[in-house]
Structure formats: structure tokens, C-alpha cells
Amino acid sequence: MRTNNLILQFTSKFVFFIIFFFAVHIFFAGHYTPGGGFVGGLLMSSALVLLVIAYDLKTVQMILPVNYMYMTAIGLILALGTAAFPMFVGKPFFTHFYDYFHLPLIGKTSLHTAALFDLGVFLVVVGVTMTIIQTIGEDE
Amino acid sequence: MQVLAIFIPIIAAILLPFLFKQVRAIHTGWFVLLVPLILLGYYLTFVKQTINGQSVVATMEWIPSLDISFTSYLDGLSILFSILITGIGSLVVLYSIFYLDQTKEQLHNFYIYLLMFMTAMLGVVQSDHVITLYLFWELTSISSFLLIGYWFNRDKSRFGALKSMMITVAGGLMMLGGFVLLSLMGGTFSIRELIVQAPSIVTHDYFVLALVLILLGAFTKSAQFPFYIWLPDAMEAPTPVSAYLHSATMVKAGIYLVARFTPIFALSEVWVWLVAGIGLLTLLWGSLFASKQTDLKGILAFSTVSQLGLIMSLLGVAAMAFHVEDAAGTIFKYAGFAAIFHLINHATFKGSLFMIAGIVDHETGTRDIRKLGGLMSLMPVSFTVALIGSFSMAGLPPFNGFLSKEMFLTGMLSVKEFDLFNFETFGVLFPILAWIASVFTFVYSFYFVFKTFTGKLQAEKLPKKPHEAPIGMLVSPVILASLVVVVFFIPNIVGDLFVKPAVAAIQPFLYDSPDEVDIAVQAWHGFKPEFWMTVGIVAAGLLLFALLPKWQKIYRVIPEWLSLNRLYDFIMNTVLDTAMERFSSLYMTESIRKYLTYMFAAIVSIVIGTLFFKDAFSLSFENVSPIALYDVTLLIVLVIGTLTTLFAKSRITAIIGLGAVGYTVALFFVIFNAPDLALTQLVIETISVALFLMAFYHLPKLGRVEERMRFQVGRALIAFGVGAMVTLLALSAHSQKLVESISGYYKETVYSLAGGGNIVNVILVDYRGFDTLFEITVLAIAGMGIYAMIKLRLSRKEKSNENK
Fold first, then answer.
1. CA B766 to CA B403: how far, in whole Å?
2. Cα distance between residue B84 and residue B497, in whole Å
3. Which residues of B touch A (CB under 8 A)?
4. Cβ separation of B676 and A34 shorter than 8 Å?
5. Residue contact A96–B783, C-beta within 8 A
6. How far is CA A37 from CA A104, B761, B764, in A?
7. Helix residue ranges per DSSP H, B266-399
8. How far is CA B286 from CA B281, B340, B381, in A?
């Protein structure tokens, strides 16, 4: 049975990007205002889930040929690496560093190693959620 | 640098997979060979310091807050072992280049394990810190496990690997207990500092317990009776591994441990009896059963067990020197020297013999001594090496085994003169048993070499046409065999360079520096008891060897079920496997509902029980916020959603009901000013509803049975209990503040310490980053678990379709 999903498909094209950028925003805003890697990652996965529902798994995989298992692994390595890095400069495990920089276009901003760790969390959350959804979805 | 040197092998191992895959033309072993060679050169530079009795210490902090560090302590004993490890290691790697085929074997795995072992072993013999010593100790067990199981598609390899690991790791855990006790007694983790405190530790209540525990570690590792049973099964490993781990280095870790801790424990009677007694028993036992074996490597395994017992018993006798006045001037000085000297000699001759066994296996295709014979003319070089090794093992001149065997007899004879701890009555047994064991050592040495190389060639029984091994394979055993001869002629140079510094390290109360060890090795020292004993050994040995076919049958009389192997099998299979499985299948019913029942019942009973017994419940309505109309509305929605889920006839209604509950909770978060939580809850609800819908397809249909599920009192009780528990807990938590809330601290430091603004997120990534790290790890594991589970099921389905 083919269902006519035209409206859903059309709107999700826009909504996807809105959620996508919101997720990115939430991720970066996390250190000062509500948000963070975990929520950001979940939002990102919900954007992808929306696409999966509107189209189907194969189409989404064609548009975004990402191996989510790798994504999980990269996220874990990133998180662990950020946590372990201070050990190599003589600081205890999990010491975070931060400082303020002047970046072009953005202006004065603070850069944290915590954000790198958070990026790891973000990637793991997206990776795992999508792995689960993909494997369950494929198994039909 | 000194600490780093320990880790060089394992760091080098990282490169191996790339070298193995990219550089196919060159055998990976050649690259590996560089590592032990360089380290050998490095450690040789320390010899000029250790011969003066100096020691070199270097420390690298690991976990300063727990006072754990990597401390490399190089004295005479450590440097001797380090040189053995790297020296024999180089020869073994060279040998393995020709033994293992580049095209057929997974060489990178092999060499990674081998290098891992090298690091572990160097760590064991150099660590001054007991905790890191334990760490390296277990790493040797693990790498040994991997190496024995290297040909993992063979049943016997896997069995042998598991057996060795079970026994050695069990012993290692005992040893850890001993270490912990010891460091509590002495208040330090450092072995050197513990040695200084030895006189006060001896009187401690737990001293004997620590001693026994540490000995268990040493005895399991060094294959002493009754733990030796893993060593014969470990012979399933590739021969280079047997030569390296299971004769020259790893099994000597126990010897090292005993030697290292002698200054602390030697003052105890238990130590002297256990080390000397068990050593002697192992010596005798191993030598008796070596001639029973039909596998070449089996003979060598039992002979290794026996020789390890020999060294062990000598160390036990060496401990007697601590109880004798002015021992450095009496006969008791010999045992310690003999132990170390024999350790070196054993490494040389046993290493070469193992390599020869490997060559025979490689070139004829079998190690069964019943099929072998008459190889002398076909493999003259191998024969010569085997002859040298065996004669040295039998204790014949002009080989190094003769020298240390004579000293061993001297050491054993000295026991007679020891008059403490009941040795005046039992001491006389030592030389007698030692003599008997030596006779059988002589027999199995001859059995090994002459049954293989002389007699009639049975070419039709051999899987391959036998021929001499390639030169590359012969280099290592020839080097070792020439060492066997060379050491005989220059024993005192070896003694000054390696043995005396090590002896001074074992017996620091006797000697201040290695120069004071007043022992000169000589091949001829007159018609003394030792000489007549050797003559007796040769005579009796020759006689027994000649009559071997007649009395070898006796071994068959001993019933198989009496053996220690049976005991091990019984414990492993019957007790641990069958009985435990039956026990766990009592409650592991593979029903998730059951498991949830267990969990919730446990939580409820524990928490409510605690509340009740500790009288922790209290109720106060101070500082409560007023209940507004929308709170009530949300609550009603919540209740309706829950009830819908509970009583829904179709699953989809239940899912929607559950979603409603989730979103309502999110609204509660909004009302109570927790935007982060609200956001997370909202997204999670969305995704889990989506997941439910996806998984919907796979869930079993709600059958009629399920629809009219009986009302189960037990489940209802648990559900009610969980609800009551959460309510009571929340009320209590609100009503009493035993400790100050931590949020104040977060508010103050979130900007100054963490440079952030959003406490919730800073907690996640910084304050409690460890939690998050582990959570995402668990998450990743769960994801991979689901992936594997479903993919595996899929491929099985496909297979069953194919079968149709």
C-alpha cells in the first residue's frame, strides 16, 4: 500500500533544517544557556527520525551516507581523548581548559575543551540513536 | 628513560599490524627483533653499576593521589632477569622468524602478544611498587593466555590457554591480597622500604597470611606442585613461545618473586619449610613423571617443572642463611648462589632443547617420541645441540649444568647441618630426595635425546620426510648451546658479572656488596660427597635408562582418575560449569517481565526497608509551593494517560498514552523552571515514540491471553510499592536537609572554576564528567549490542531460508 505523504514530505524538508540548526545552536549554547551535547544530539537524531518517517530508511541513507557505528566510535574516542589529554601535560585526568579569544566575524568568544568533550557526547548520542533506529527499521 | 624502556616493546607493538600488512616481502619478525636487541644493549650498560652493588632507580608517577607509580628499580637481580628476558627474547624472535611462516600465519597477532609479554615481564622484574608489580604480573598471565591460544582453532590450545590463565590468575589474585596486607603492615608500597622494615613486619599478626598468599602467587606462576598442571597443557603454544615464556622467563617470575621477597620473609620458619619443601617435592615429582611423557615438549614441560622446583628449593635453603650466625663464612652461603647460577644455566640449556624440539616437530611433522628415532645422521647439528643441552641438564661435564648441579648438591647437603625448625630430624631427607630426583633427571635427559636421535629411523611413521633445519632456525639453539659450553669454562666471570650482584640483592643482610660473596665456582673440588653423589647419579641413571622399557610400564599402574588434572577438570566442569549453570537457570528464565519484577521488588524492599529501619521518614510542609490550577490539570492528564496505557486494548493506544504521560512530565519541568530537563524530556519522548512505532512491527501481537491478562496480586503489589517508595522518598527528601545542598557550590564556582554559565550542562561535561563519560560508553555498548543482536538474527534467518 502506498500512502500519499506529500504534505509530510514537503514540510519535513523545511522542518528538518530548522531542527538541524536548532540542534547545532543548542549544542553550542549549552555552556551558558539551556542546551548541551546530549540534548543537541537528541534533537539532531529527531530531525533525522523525521526524515526517516517522511521518506524511508533507504532514501535517508542515500542522502546521508553515514555509518553511525563509526560516528559512535569517533564520539567515544573524542570524549575519552579530551578527558585523557591533560594527563600528557601533567594535569589530572579530566582537567578542562578554557580561554577567551577574538575570532574573526564572531568577535570575543570563549573556547573550551569541555565543548570538545560535549561534541563527543553529541556524536555518541546521534550515533547510537540512529544505529538503533536503522537496525530496527531495516529488520523487516 | 629507564621506566620508558619497560614500555618500549608494547609501544613498538602498535606499529606491527601496519608493518605486517604493508611490508609483505620482509618477515615481520625482523622488525620485532630490533626491540629486544636494543633493550639488551641498553640493559647491558647497567651491568658495570650492578657489579659494584649499586642500584639505579627511576620513577614515573601514574596515579599520584593513590600513591601509585611506575618505579623501575635495577639492582643485580632485576638486571639479570632483564638481560635474560631481552637476551633470550632476541634469540626466540630470531628463531620464530624461521619457525612461523609469513604467508600462513597471523604474525602481527603473534608478535603483538609477544611484545606485550616482554613489557609485562620487564615490568614484573623491575617494579619496586607492589601494585604495579601486580599489574604487570597479571599482564604476563594474559599475554601467556593469548600466546598459548595463538592457534585458537585447536581445541587443545584453547583448553591449555584457559587452564594456564585460570591457575595463574587465581594465584595472582592471592598474591595481590598478600601485597595489600604487606603494604598495610609496612605502610608503604615500595618493596625496598618494606625490606628495611622487615624486622618489625615479622612480628605482625598477619605476617604468615601475607607470606602464604604471596607464595601462592609465586607457586602458581612457577608451576610448583600441585599447581604445575597448567604447564604441560601450555605446550600447545607455538614452540618459540614455549621456549621463551614457559621455560626461560615467565615461569621464572615466581622464582623472581620468591628471591625478591626473601629478605622480608626469610626470617619465618613457614617460609623456609614451604619454599624448600614444595620446591623439593616439585623437583622430585617433575623428574619422576618426565619419563612417562611421549610428547617431546611434554618431557621438556615436566623437566621444566622439576628444574623450577630445584631452583625454588635452593632459594628455600638460601633463606636458612638468615638464621645462621655468620652465614657468609659457612656452607650455607652456597644455596643462594647455586639458585641464581642454575637459573642462568637452565635458561640456556632448556631454551636450546625447546628449540630443538620445535625443529624436530617442524622437520618431521611429529613430536611423538614413539615415532621418532634415528635422526642423528639426518640432523647432525640439531643432534649435537640436543646432546649438549641434555648432558647439561643431566649434570655432566663439560657443561654448565654440571657446575650448578654440584652446587645444588652442596646446598642440599648443607641442610643436614641446619638445626632449627625440626630440620635436625627431617633435614637428612633433603639430600636423599635431591639425589633420587637427580637420577631421574639424568634418565629423562637421556630419554629425550637418545630416543629421538638414535635407534631406528621409522620414516614411514613420520608425516614429513625428515631433513636438517634451515640455518636460520639453527642459529639460536647453536648460540645457546655454545653458551652452555662457554659458561662451563668461564663460570667465575659469569659469577662476578651476574650471579654475585643478584645474590647480594637476595641476601642484603649477609653481604654489603657483591665483592663480599666469597664463592668461586670450580669444576673439580676433590673427592667430596658431592663428587660421589654425582658418580652415583650417573651410575644409577645409566642403569635405569638402560632398563627404561621394562619399568616405564609402572606409570600405567597409577590410575588416571587420581591425577590433579582430574581435580582441575572436576572443579572447572562439574562445579563451576554444570552446577553453577543449574543454579543460575533457577532464576534466569529469559523472561524480561520476570527480571523487571526482581529489580523492582529489590529496589522497593531495600529502599522502604532502609526508610523503616533507619526511621528516616519525616514529613513537613514547610517551604512548599502553592498548588495552582494548572498543576491539578496536568496531574489529571498524567493520571488519565497512565490509566490509558494500562488498560488500552490495542498497543498503539498504549504507546500514545505513554507519550502523553511523557509530555506532561515535560510540562511539569517547564512549570518548575527546569528548561534543560524539559527540553531533554520533550525530545526523548518524541524519539521514543518514534522508536516504539518502528519497533511496533516486531513486537508480538497482543494475543487473547495477553488481553485478558489475569490480575496478578504480586505485580500489583510491586507496582504499588514502587509508587509508594518514590512518594515517600520525595517527601522525606524535601522534609529534611541533612547536608547542605550542593547547588550553592555550583552557583558560586560555575563561572570562576568552569568558565560556564549553565550549571546543568557544566555538571554534565565538567563537574561530573566521569559520569557522562561512562554513560556514553554504556550507551555506545548498548547501541552496538542491539546492532549485533538484530544483525545476527537477520543472518540466521537468511541462512535458514537458504537451507529451505
1. 65
2. 13
3. 65, 675-676, 679-680, 683-684, 686-687, 690-691, 694-695, 697-698, 754-758, 760-762, 764-766, 769-770, 772-773, 776-777, 779-780, 782-784, 786-787, 790-791, 793-794
4. yes
5. no
6. 25, 8, 9
7. 269-290, 296-320, 334-364, 380-394
8. 8, 20, 28
Question: B699 Cβ partners below 8 Å, 6+ apart?
Answer: B651
Amino acid identity for residue B359 in this structure = I
How long, in residues, is chain B?
A: 804
- Report whether the peptide linkage leading into residue B226 is cis, meaning its omega lies within 30 degrees of zero: yes
Does residue A108 surpass a pLDDT of 80?
no
**Rounded Cα–Cα distance for residues B95 and B467 (Å):** 17
The Cα–Cα gap between B117 and B120 comes to: 5
Q: Do B679 and A83 touch (CB under 8 A)?
A: no
Q: Do A42 and B687 touch (CB under 8 A)?
A: yes
Q: Provide the 10 A C-beta neighbour count for residue B333.
A: 25
What is the rounded average pLDDT of the residues B423-452? 86
Confidence of residue B704 (pLDDT cuts 50, 70, 90): very low
Mean pLDDT for B49-56 is 84
Cβ contact B246:B304 at 8 Å: yes
Q: Could you tell me the residue ranges of all domains in chain B?
A: 742-804
Cβ–Cβ below 8 Å for B758 and A94: no
- Chain length of chain A: 140
List phi, psi (to 5°) of B461: -85, -10
Asked if B414 and B371 touch (Cβ cutoff 8 Å), the reply is no
Q: How far is CA A89 from CA A101, B68, B755, in A?
A: 22, 18, 20
Cβ neighbours of residue B194 under 8 Å, at least 6 residues apart?
Answer: B130, B182, B183, B186, B188, B201, B264
Are residues B220 and B170 in contact, defined by beta-carbon separation less than 8 angstroms? yes
Query: What would the mean pLDDT of B435-458 be, rounded to a whole number?
Result: 87
Q: How far apart are CA B161 and CA B406, in angstroms?
A: 36
| φ, ψ at B73 (rounded to 5°) | -120, 110
Residue reference for cell 489529571? B636
pLDDT at A2: 57
Cell numbers for B793? 538474527
Q: How many other CB atoms sit within 10 Å of the CB of residue B795?
A: 10
Q: Which of A26, A45, A117 sits opposite B765 (nearest CB)?
A: A117
Q: Which residues of A38-54 are buried (b: 16+ CB within 10 A; e: fewer)?
A: bbbbbbbbbbbbbbbbb
Which candidate from B687, B695, B791 shows the least CB-CB separation from A49?
Answer: B687
B658: enclosing H helix or E strand: helix B651-671
Helices within B187-265 (DSSP H only)? 191-196, 198-201, 207-221, 230-233, 239-243, 253-265
Question: Phi, psi (5° rounding) for residue B523?
Answer: -75, -30
Grid cell locating B233: 597443557
Question: Distance between CA B225 and CA B279 in Å, rounded?
Answer: 8
Q: Considering only the beta carbons, identify the residue of B758, B776, B786 that sits closest to A132.
A: B786
- Range in B114-123, B475-484, B613-622 with the lowest mean pLDDT: B613-622
Would you call the peptide bond into B466 cis, given omega within 30 degrees of 0 as the criterion? no
Q: In this prediction, what percent of chain B has a pLDDT beyond 90?
A: 29
Which residues of A fall within a CB distance of 8 Å from B776?
Answer: 75-76, 79, 120-121, 124-125
Task: Tell which residue, B315, B228, B216, B308, has the closest CA to residue B275.
Answer: B315
